[in-house]
Request: fold
Amino acid sequence: MELELSKKEIEAALLEWVEKQFPGMFNEVHIRAQYGSLDNAVFSKKSEAPDPDAG
Reply:
C-alpha cells in the first residue's frame, strides 16, 4: 500500500500539527524540497494587515 500526499495536503497536515503543539504561534508553512524529497519545513506567522475600515 502506498499513500501519496500533494504539497497542499502536507502543508495542511503540518499546520494542523503545529497549531496543536503551539496554539496561535504559526499560521503558515513553507516546504523546502530538493530533488523531489522533503528537505525541511519552515513555520512562520504572517501578520494580518490592519483593517482600514476598523476604528
About this structure: The mean pLDDT is 83. The CA atoms of residues 6 and 14 lie 12 Å apart.
